[in-house]
């Protein structure tokens, strides 16, 4: 009997710092919510090893379920947070746990979300070596001013270096994330972002709109009239 295939999602809820618009479950190195807990990230260990150990144990627990054990895995997605904050050793450890537990198919798409500023050529080569074959890079904009407004940790130059390293490491399936409706963004600045990214010929572009989410710094800034957001017609 043919078994229904599985798609796995692995969550790494740690970042260098949380972006001003983000409402995902993630924690920066100075997040007050984790003070006094064993999972407080640090600059030396941005993804705490005890989280990785717990994650690998949970992978094993799910793999022991009879309903999942022998189903073919056709997709694995590492999201966050910033999964590319993991060390090379941690990436190998999680991938090993997945392969020991699940039946990952040879042609499975294995994606790692990443941010410029957290990637090195060595780390990208390690990702490819252990089977990660798709990279999703969170650029958002080629304007350094717009990136600064969003609270991103990288510059456009850092993205270009990361993209170059990814190609050098052997990634032939790269997605680039872009955002619209940013504070002070114009049609021309977005057009420029698209032109610059298209010149790199990524395999995919994900373009999505900024949404002001509850309980984020951007919500407070909007309430205080500090965000110069384009109106809906301009965004469209």
Give an account of the 3D structure.
- The chain is globular.
- α2 links the parallel β2 (72-80) and β3 (103-114).
- It has helices at residues 49-63, 88-101, 121-129, 144-150, 156-169, 187-199, 217-223, 232-235; strands spanning 6-12, 72-80, 103-114, 134-140, 174-180, 204-209.
- The protein starts with 5 loop residues before the first strand and ends with a helix.
- The model has no long low-confidence stretch (mean pLDDT 92).
- It has eight helices and six strands, in the order βαβαβαβααβαβαα.
- It has a single domain (6-235), classed as Aldolase class I (TIM Barrel, Alpha-Beta Barrel), CATH 3.20.20.70.
The number of helices is 8
Low-confidence stretches: none
The gyration radius over C-alpha positions equals 19 Å
User: What would you say the CATH architecture is?
Assistant: Alpha-Beta Barrel
| Biggest sheet details | 6 strands, parallel
- Strand order across the largest sheet: 1-2-3-4-5-6
Q: CA-to-CA gap between the ends?
A: 48 Å
Fourth-tier CATH superfamily name:
Aldolase class I
The total count of strands amounts to 6
In short:
The chain is α/β, with parallel strands linked by helices and 236 residues long. The chain has helices spanning 49-63, 88-101, 121-129, 144-150, 156-169, 187-199, 217-223, 232-235; strands at residues 6-12, 72-80, 103-114, 134-140, 174-180, 204-209. The chain has a 6-stranded parallel β-sheet with strand order 1-2-3-4-5-6.
